[in-house]
Amino acid sequence: MTSSRSGSRRFIWLAVAIVAAIVLYTLGWNYAAQRLTSEAESALQSMAGNGDRANCENIEARGYPFRIGLFCDSVFVERRIDGFTFAAGELRSAAQIYAPRQIVAELDSPARLTAPGILPLELKWDGLRASARLTTSLPERLSLVATALSASVDAPGEIEGDVLKAGEFQLHLQPVDSDVELGIRLNSAVGGAALPGPELPPVSGVADIMMGDGIARLASRDFTLRGGTYDIRRLELAFEGGGTISVTGPLTVDQDGLIDATLDIRTGETARLMEVFAEAYPQLRSQLTALSAGLTALGPDQSLPLKIRKGVAIFGFIELGMIPPL
Asked: What is the pLDDT of residues 41-65, one digit of tens each?
């Protein structure tokens, strides 16, 4: 009888302990949720001012019991000083309770983007997911992946139509000392009717670029490509049907947006590549045919310099023309 009562007491105390633990955990989760929401609202307020705006509509924390993250019905950012605006649909973010510094987020399509030097764009995607691993000061790594991405001009009365479509777009950022390593991957991209320039076959590409003093530059409210130095460690394009081109070398952009660079160009399936360019630029067909013969004679391990001086690009012995200021 005594043994039975002792067992009942242990069960009751165990039940009480479990209930107490759940209550304490719930209180802790709600405290963390309120703190997270408050800090997010403070961050949005700090981004506003001087005509700038930042809004996460109906912001709230969700994810109980095992996750915690911020949800918004829509997002909007505006920087009046340079005419940059971005608006998109619902934002969902989450971090596991046991790994709060590993954050994932999803953003719903469509989005509208305006930026200096380009027409307003409407962006659509099937899925867009971002992830970040945070440290005490800076993200250790930031990644973004978009599938079935498309960009079209959203300016009635201006040029209309698609600018670009891509099966997948990836962007990865990682601090390296004071610099930032930038990785880009693009699959099955094709230009639309609204994209200036000749028609090219679908292209896939990868890029590995080091941005000098990137941490300070990206943190600036007045970020621009101008005044920057970039080490192109790998930039490779592969055209559907054959033909590849890769680029390496240093590049700088002056305060007027003009590029200076000395780049090494290597090609694969050179004859097919030159045919792609000849179809796009028929006025250069004879020069490209001669260049193709020269590259083939040099062998697969040879390269040609692409020199850019104050925006004027010269590839081998062919002057390609002026690159507009960035």
From this structure: 888 888 777 778 889 999 999 988 8
Give the count of beta carbons closer than 10 Å to the beta carbon of residue 219.
Answer: 9
Give the span between the Cα atoms of 58 and 37, in whole angstroms. 11
pLDDT at residue 3 greater than cutoff 60? no
Domain boundaries, the chain: 1-108
Strands (E), the chain: 53-56, 60-62, 67-72, 75-79, 84-88, 91-96, 99-107, 111-114, 121-124, 127-134, 139-153, 162-176, 179-191, 203-211, 229-239, 244-253, 259-268, 304-309, 312-315, 318-322
Enter the tokens of residue 169.
């777009």
- In this structure, how many other beta carbons lie within 10 angstroms of the beta carbon of residue 125? 22
With H, G, I as helix, E, B as strand and everything else as coil, classify residue 198: coil
pLDDT, tens digit (0-9, with 9 covering 90-100), for 306-315: 899 988 888 7
3-state secondary structure (DSSP) of residue 253: strand
Q: What single string gives the DSSP state of each residue in 26-67?
A: HHHHHHHHHHHHHHHHHHHHHH-BTTBEEEETT-EEE-TTTE
At 107 the pLDDT is 96
Q: Two tokens at 254?
A: 């002056």
Q: Which pLDDT does position 221 carry in this prediction? A: 67
The 3-state DSSP class for residue 263 equals strand
CA dist 41 and 267 (Å) reads: 51
203: exposed, middle or buried (Cβ count in 10 Å: 0-12, 13-18, 19+): buried
pLDDT score of 301: 60
Task: Give me the residue label for tokens 């596991």.
Answer: 96
| Helix 285-298 with 270-280: angle, nearest 10 deg | 170
Could you tell me which of 185, 122, 190 has the C-alpha nearest to residue 152? 122
